[in-house]
């Protein structure tokens, strides 16, 4: 195995694209090093992306944010403007692992690991985030909900890497939230995760909403029917009930040691509803 | 293919050779004889290998040695000042916050990272901050109390 730590994106793409054997990009390493140790992956080349400045920066861009794919969870949590604009995305990322893991784990890594239960992904999908992908043929933008192809599978071609996560501008009266259910208080993998982002008009009516769920299908999913139940309402009891039902109806989970299908379907509705209540509260207070 | 890496460890410039697949924990323990950092799980779950990397608390088992090039690393070996123990170390001893001791270096490094950024954490904050450090002996209560009393002493100093 070889290890390279290029300082430019072009050099990283060239290394990854030119490797005849198996190449793996390295951001925080909190998934990759575990896979290396387990022998689950035996790369010929590891390319550390953390010396590329663009991968490590959070920039305010056109009213939104551009978050380098290797920015750590701890750095997200320490960014007051980002936390104010997108509290749901930040809280979802901060749920991943311990203080030690937060010092290394990144949004880009959580996305590229492509776990159906990745905590930050439903929050990014709800936020209508798109990732910038760089590769041998240049750059392209991919909506987060189209990025993951299946468990552990992404839409990246050989030589492509995720450079940044782009969060759109935030209008007034907008809020987002992410909740996950785990049977303990911390340090666990989601049984169900739910992200909600919504915007209200001056009268408190919901004009825009996105609802996304994690750990209830082969990939994190966007649930337009759940969003539709909120749009045009003020988030009343009836709207929240219909939203929860739509969320449950969209689930295609598996039975596993963390929960049964029936349980996940029920809990998905409960989590989506509670996340919506938090997002509504946040939207009303700004 | 070994490569040479230069880093700063506990304030000293250190050069070492390492293989690409060696972790920072392997390097610290096996090449530099800094055996204070322990290997518990090797997968980032137990925190026994906690070190500071450029001012961030990390598991050294989840860092490659080659990544350390040019970085600043602090380990448990740098915590005491000569023969004078850090207040956290003293309070761990005085309050029996350890039994077998394997988890202790990791807890101390993690607790110091907390107190360096927040000199007056609540008990809840201490428990959440240290959730990535596992101890199978003490039941955690004595550890949390030792951290809180060390923090109180450090605030008065």
Detailed description of the structure:
- The complex is a heterodimer of chains A (286) and B (157).
- Chain A folds into two domains: 2-48 and 55-167, Uridine Diphospho-n-acetylenolpyruvylglucosamine Reductase, domain 3; 174-284, CO dehydrogenase flavoprotein, C-terminal domain (Enolase-like, domain 1).
- Chain A is 34% helix and 25% strand.
- Chain A is built from eleven helices and 14 strands.
- Chain A has helices at 9-18, 32-38, 73-77, 80-85, 87-94, 99-102, 107-113, 120-126, 224-230, 237-249, 261-284, and strands at residues 2-4, 23-26, 45-48, 58-61, 64-68, 130-135, 138-143, 148-150, 153-154, 161-167, 174-181, 192-200, 206-214, 221-222.
- In chain A, strands 4-5-10-6-7 form a five-stranded antiparallel beta sheet. A four-stranded antiparallel beta sheet of chain A has the order 11-12-13-14, with helices on both faces. In chain A, strands 1-3-2 form a three-stranded parallel beta sheet, with helices on one face.
- In chain A, helix 9 (224-230) runs antiparallel to helix 10.
- The N and C termini of chain A lie far apart (51 Å).
- Chain B has 157 residues and is an alpha+beta fold.
- Chain B folds into two domains: 3-77, Beta-grasp domain (Ubiquitin-like (UB roll)), CATH 3.10.20; 87-156, DNA polymerase, domain 1.
- In chain B, 34% of the residues lie in helices and 16% in strands.
- Chain B has helices spanning 24-31, 87-94, 104-117, 123-129, 141-156; strands at residues 3-9, 12-18, 50-53, 56-59, 72-74.
- Chain B has a five-stranded mixed beta sheet with strand order 2-1-5-3-4, sandwiched between helices.
- The longest helix of chain B is centred in the last third of the chain and has 16 residues, at 141-156.
- The radius of gyration of chain B is 15 Å and the shape is globular.
- The relative contact order of chain B is 0.16.
- The A-B interface holds A 1-3, 5, 26, 28-30, 33-34, 36-38, 46, 48, 50, 72, 74, 97-101, 103-104, 186-187 and B 1, 3, 20-21, 23, 42-44, 47, 50, 53, 56-59, 61-64, 66-67, 69, 110, 113-114, 128-133.
């Amino acid at each position: 195995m070889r290890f390279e730590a290029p300082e430019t994106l072009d050099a990283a793409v060239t290394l990854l694209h030119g490797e005849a054997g198996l190449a793996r990009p390295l951001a925080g390493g909190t998934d990759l090093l575990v896979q290396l140790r387990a022998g689950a992956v035996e790369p010929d080349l590891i390319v550390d992306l953390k010396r590329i400045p663009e991968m490590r920066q959070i920039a305010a861009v056109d009213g939104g944010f551009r978050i380098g794919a290797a920015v750590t969870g701890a750095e997200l949590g320490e960014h007051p403007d980002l936390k104010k604009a997108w509290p749901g995305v930040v809280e979802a990322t901060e749920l991943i692992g311990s203080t030690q893991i937060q010092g290394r784990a990144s949004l880009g890594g959580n996305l590229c690991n492509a776990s159906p239960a990745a905590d930050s992904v439903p929050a990014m999908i709800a936020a209508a985030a798109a990732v910038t992908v760089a590769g041998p043929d240049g750059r392209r933008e991919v909506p987060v909900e189209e990025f993951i192809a299946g468990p552990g599978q992404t839409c990246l071609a050989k030589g492509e890497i995720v450079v940044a996560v782009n969060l759109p501008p935030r209008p007034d009266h907008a809020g987002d939230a992410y909740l996950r259910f785990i049977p303990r208080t911390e340090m666990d993998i989601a049984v169900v995760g739910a992200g909600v982002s919504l915007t209200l008009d001056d009268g408190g009516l919901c004009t825009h909403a996105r609802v996304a769920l994690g750990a209830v299908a082969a990939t994190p999913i966007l649930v337009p029917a759940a969003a539709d139940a909120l749009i045009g309402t003020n988030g009343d009891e009836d709207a929240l009930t219909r939203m929860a039902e739509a969320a449950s109806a969209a689930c295609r989970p598996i039975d596993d040691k963390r929960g049964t299908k029936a349980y996940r379907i029920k809990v998905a509705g409960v989590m989506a509803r509670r996340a919506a209540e938090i997002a509504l509260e946040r939207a009303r207070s700004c | 293919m070994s490569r040479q890496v230069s880093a700063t460890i506990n304030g000293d410039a250190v050069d070492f050779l390492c293989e690409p697949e060696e972790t920072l924990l392997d390097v610290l323990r096996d090449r530099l004889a800094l055996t204070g950092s322990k290997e518990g799980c090797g997968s980032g779950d137990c925190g026994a290998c906690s070190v500071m990397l450029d001012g961030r608390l990390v598991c050294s088992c989840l860092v490659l040695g080659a990544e350390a090039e040019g970085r600043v690393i602090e380990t448990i070996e740098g915590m005491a000042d000569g023969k004078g123990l850090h207040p956290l170390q003293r309070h761990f001893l005085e309050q029996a916050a350890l039994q077998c001791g394997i988890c202790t270096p990791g807890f101390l490094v993690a607790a110091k990272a907390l107190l360096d950024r927040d000199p007056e954490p609540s008990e809840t904050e201490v428990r959440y901050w240290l959730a990535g450090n596992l101890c199978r002996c003490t039941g955690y209560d004595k550890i949390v109390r030792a951290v809180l009393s060390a923090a109180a002493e450090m605030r008065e100093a």
